[in-house]
Design brief:
This protein is mostly helical. Helices cover 85% and strands 0% of the residues. The protein is elongated and about 60 Å long.
C-alpha cells in the first residue's frame, strides 16, 4: 500500500501544478477576450473554480502531511504564461484558445479519474469526494466548451469576414 500512497501523492502534486497552470492560462485568456462576452464570462467563472480546486488539492496534500512541488507549480505557471504570450500573436487566438481549453479540460478529467481510482485503493473516501467534485467541474467546463465551440467559431468568422477585430 506504500507504493500506492507514493503514487497518489505524486499525482496529487501533479494535479496541483496543473491547476496552477490552468489559473494562469484562464486568467490571461479571460483578460484578453474583448468581443466574446459569453466565453469570457465562462472562462472567468472557471478560473474561480480552478482557484478553489487548487485550494482543495492543497488541503488533501496537507492531510497527508506533504507539500506541493514548487518546481512543478513554477514550471506550469511559466508554460501557461508562454502559451498566453504566444497566443496573442495568433490571428485566430479565440478559436485556438477555446480548442486548447477543451483539450486541457480532458487532460484534467483523465488526471482526476486516475486520482479517484488511487484514492479508492487507499480507502480515502474524503479524497474521493473532493476529487469527484473537482472532476464534475472539469467535465462541466469541457461540456460547455464543446457545446459552444460552434458559436465561438461562427462569431469569429463573422467578425473576420466583416473586417472587424476578431482574434480576441
Amino acid at each position: 500500500m506504500e507504493e500506492t500512497r507514493t503514487n497518489f501523492l505524486a499525482w496529487l502534486r501533479d494535479a496541483h501544478a496543473m491547476e496552477q497552470q490552468a489559473i494562469t492560462m484562464l486568467n490571461a485568456q479571460a483578460n484578453r477576450l474583448e468581443h466574446y462576452p459569453m466565453l469570457r464570462a465562462r472562462i472567468a467563472e472557471h478560473a474561480d473554480e480552478t482557484e478553489n480546486q487548487a485550494l482543495q488539492l492543497q488541503g488533501l496534500l496537507d492531510r497527508y502531511d506533504t507539500s506541493t512541488s514548487m518546481m512543478k507549480d513554477a514550471a506550469g505557471k511559466f508554460t501557461a504564461g508562454a502559451q498566453a504570450f504566444g497566443g496573442m500573436f495568433a490571428g485566430d487566438e479565440v478559436v485556438k484558445g477555446a480548442q486548447m481549453g477543451y483539450v486541457f479540460e480532458h487532460l484534467e478529467i483523465a488526471s482526476y479519474t486516475i486520482l479517484i481510482a488511487a484514492a479508492r485503493e487507499l480507502g480515502d473516501g474524503e479524497a474521493v469526494a473532493v476529487l469527484d467534485s473537482i472532476l464534475q467541474e472539469e467535465e462541466a467546463m469541457a461540456d460547455w466548451l464543446l457545446a459552444n465551440l460552434p458559436d465561438v467559431t461562427g462569431a469569429y468568422l463573422s467578425r473576420d469576414e466583416a473586417g472587424m477585430p476578431a482574434q480576441r
